[in-house]
Fold this sequence. Notes:
By secondary structure, the first copy, chain A, is mainly alpha-helical.
Amino acid sequence: MTERKEPTYIFSDKQVAEKSEIARRFLDTRTRLNETVDKADNFLVKRFYNIDHNTYLEGALPAKYKELMGLVASACLRCDDCINYHVIQSYRLGVTRAEQEEAINVALVVGGSIVIPHLRRGYELLAELYA
Amino acid sequence: MTERKEPTYIFSDKQVAEKSEIARRFLDTRTRLNETVDKADNFLVKRFYNIDHNTYLEGALPAKYKELMGLVASACLRCDDCINYHVIQSYRLGVTRAEQEEAINVALVVGGSIVIPHLRRGYELLAELYA
Amino acid sequence: MTERKEPTYIFSDKQVAEKSEIARRFLDTRTRLNETVDKADNFLVKRFYNIDHNTYLEGALPAKYKELMGLVASACLRCDDCINYHVIQSYRLGVTRAEQEEAINVALVVGGSIVIPHLRRGYELLAELYA
Amino acid sequence: MTERKEPTYIFSDKQVAEKSEIARRFLDTRTRLNETVDKADNFLVKRFYNIDHNTYLEGALPAKYKELMGLVASACLRCDDCINYHVIQSYRLGVTRAEQEEAINVALVVGGSIVIPHLRRGYELLAELYA
Amino acid sequence: MTERKEPTYIFSDKQVAEKSEIARRFLDTRTRLNETVDKADNFLVKRFYNIDHNTYLEGALPAKYKELMGLVASACLRCDDCINYHVIQSYRLGVTRAEQEEAINVALVVGGSIVIPHLRRGYELLAELYA
Amino acid sequence: MTERKEPTYIFSDKQVAEKSEIARRFLDTRTRLNETVDKADNFLVKRFYNIDHNTYLEGALPAKYKELMGLVASACLRCDDCINYHVIQSYRLGVTRAEQEEAINVALVVGGSIVIPHLRRGYELLAELYA
């Protein structure tokens, strides 16, 4: 079995929030809503969150590529919150802007023009993060 | 701009087809149907195929990770043909089985249990290719 | 043929709106927009609304379970408005919070982590309704 | 209110089945399965089938363009049976092959490369019908 | 926290397979492919299967309604394998045919006519199981 | 090969924005975000935009029906931005309100009640444009 371990982040959430207003608002809302979910203490939700966390650890694939895969999945399934999350995580792991754009290109070609409104908003976040 | 170039394949389609019966049937059908599409000579379809081809070239991201991103997108959008295609392409580029499984895990967690029937069929192909 | 009849609601929309600010805003917008749709008087839209209404009546299955099924469908197809609607309808029919959470769990597991942003917002509504 | 009326078909299902083996097998299976559905005599299913039928009648838009819209919707939602159905209906209404291809192009661009396996199979049917 | 426990099945998989040829073929393929997945022994897949199993246990909601919710989710996300699975599980738990049809109606209305090809195949299975 | 050419618009974006506040806000945001995308100068995104533009030109099918097909695809894939865009483009090409409603009906029946929240918002835009 491949060993899994926590990746090393180059930037903290706080640094991301200071760099990008879009990221800051997203992270604040996410934190606030996750507190509501945590308070509910639902057994299966907690287990799902746990699997979700484990999926993106360093393993056979470097964490940064798995975050970009999460970004591709999020963009072709068209979820702005999920796109924001994986763009930020990828940024925190040192992914370059060109790498982020290439991942989004995969989602654009696989998912089609219906992805474009999400790509536009994703590029706004990229512009702030990589300014 | 990032330069793009054709990736170097370790295995040919022919070698893949000799190794796996599932792959052979998939590639045969795909070739036969693509001939029907080619014969139609539709301008926009040809341009779309061209963009599609360009998306997975070596670039800012190594081709193998982009094929795995194509696999993640295919699995979370639940398209068996597309899963077969990207599993085969990844295999041809030297991706290990453990790496393929981790990419599929991202799709499973993002896309949910509705992905499982496709994961099962994907694992059957993996078992033949990596036997 | 199974007889269909209107379910008995324990709470009115007005009571729901007084209990939850999220519900109030949702119901107000929905009412306002439905007036625009009604004014258009489109024959097929009216017939679709009619079938839609009939689907959730008491029948072979109790109405409360059908509202929860509507919630599962809404959550795994990821529509916040539809989630709000079925959470509210279920609440009006006396569904407990634990029952709502278990229905959402089905959607989470079937639909995957892409459902989570909607689950978070759904839990915020649940927190207000069951406070 | 726009008046609705049945469109005039240039070809019957029987003629279509004689022209294309793919169409014949599709229509046979569809007829057999619809008999099973009819036998069940489910009230809401019958009403849904009725709305469905009404949607494609001649109206403000000519029936042929609505069948092509059904084709676009089917292709971007990736349902082979639905694609077959609307390709056949469009053919029966005198739609040309070039028109069918342009409708499929809209679905390809909106829906992305995930549509391609369905486009390939659709082109196989087109090749038989317009031989 | 709601206690979870295994539901009591009225019929075994074997009895289902004897009653319906469609069910037998589905269960055989599923068993065979799951063996391939089990052999791979992927940590996250096993944990996902475990959560999936837990989701449908008796809890705040009776298991039979959760299986029907799984059916609704499967039908509106349009996965034949998943529909077969939840129709069979619901049948094994004593769900009546009328109840299965009402659950499918929710999926039909929420998910639209794109669900119909799956509904047709689902009705074929229902016809065999409830013969 | 069918010749393609630019369609003749009856109304400019500016006229649309003066007629409808919803349209004005949508077009402003779209313009602003497209500038961000343009600045990034991503090769594949530009080529995708180019194919996208070509898809809706006058061809075998009149541009107005292709815009309506884009509307159907957008509505059944449930993208508000895309719906707004194609409603506006159709309006600019002289499509009547009755024609727009019939196209949306196709999306409603194919895509189901999950389309309704988008239909409601689409009708609000229609009401402003055709006031």
